[in-house]
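<instruction>
Derive C-alpha cells from the sequence

<record> Sequence and C-alpha cells follow
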Amino acid sequence: MNDIDAWVWWLVGAVALGIPLVVTAMPEFGMFAVGAVAAAGVAGLGFDVVVQVLTFVVVSVALIAVVRPIAARHSAQRPQLATGVDALKGRQAVVLERVDGKGGRIKLAGEIWSARALDAGRSYEAGEEVDVVDIEGATAIVL
C-alpha cells in the first residue's frame, strides 16, 4: 500500500464514521471522522502508519475532550429569550368578561384569551388588571 492508498483509506474511514453520525445522531462519530480526515492529511504528506494512527487518536480524543463538555453545557442551558406561552407567564392582562374559577375572558398581549382564576373562590370584574400565572392549553390562569 503506497502513500496515496493510505490517505484514500483514511477518507473512506471518515465517510464510514459519518454514516453512523447521521443515523444515530451521536456527535462522537463526527469527531472520529474528523480524526480520520486529519490522519488522511498526515498520510498524504508521506508520514508512516504509526504517525497516522497517532494523529487519528490524538485528534479524536482531543475533540471529544474539548467539544463534548462544551456541547453538554450548551444543551443544559435554557434559552434566554422566552417565547410562546412562556413569554406570556407573568404578564398583565385586562379582564373583558368576568373571570372566576369557572372561566371568563381577558385581553392578553393584544389577543382575547379564555381565563380562569387561580383561586376558585375569587372573581375579577371587567376592566380589572390581572396577572397571568400560568397557561393551561388555551386558558390563562390569572391572579
In short: The chain has a mean pLDDT of 91. Residues 3-76 form one domain.
